[in-house]
Write a structure and sequence with these properties.
Length: about 300
Amino acid sequence: MKSYDAKNPHACKICGYQISHNKQGRFTSHLKVHGHTLNSYLVKFYYTEDELKCSRDTCTNLVNLTRGVPNKYCSKFCGSKKGPLTCILCGNSFLARNRKTKTCSKECAKSVKSTKFKQWHKSMSPEKKREHFNNIITKTAKTRRVNKTPSWNSGKTGIYSQETIEKIRNSTLKQMQSQNFRKTNIEKIMERFLIHNDIKYRYSFILKQRQYDFLLLDYNVIVECDGDYWHANPKFFPIPQDWQVKRQETDLIKNEIAEKNGYVILRFWEDDILNNFQTVESAIYDLLAKTKLETVSGNAEKQ
């Protein structure tokens, strides 16, 4: 690469204007006619992109010019002697100002965080989990008392008329039918299992104004994924709170509605889906095989 030198003669690459040197800035003044500074002209018309690349192997940025000559590095950081870091997940090399950075991208960071959370979840005993959830509930309640910000419906009854409640319920059901919300982690796991096994399903199935997680279309089987906290898994919450008891009563009503309408309902705890999915798989396989057998047997009798 031949660097630009103001002492040498130069021909304008835009209009061909010849100049013996640029010591007094005559060529720089000429470039104003074309709407360029000296640096912008050199970057666009004189140097190639490869000639302007940072000398750091792992960096793809372009460097700035100093008196018309490209700098070696794009920044002080690239010019330092510190080598590139290695991503703990994918193994790619990357540069970061913070030398404690472990991952090369947001996606890798999110994946590592998710893995650590699952490992933490598996390593905790039922007693530790119960203690952890109780601490969260206690701290939340304490913060609300200190800030004098009780939950909006605390101690209130009869806030809405029955008509308003029905409107809210119908609106919620429409939202669920259109799937205009995020699936939970355990629902995503269940959905991947169904897709992998080519089991036709409908997500967010509505029956008698009640929402169910998955309907297995060819079997009339409903699958519910129950969160340990919200549905009060007895393994972690042997003595559920009042609101958890109400949620359990709602679950029993949903079970009764499903069974009265000819559906078989399967419920799985979050703990089993995350830590013991083989048991979940076996329960689904067994029920589907039994349901298919009964269907074949019933069709044979009709014939």
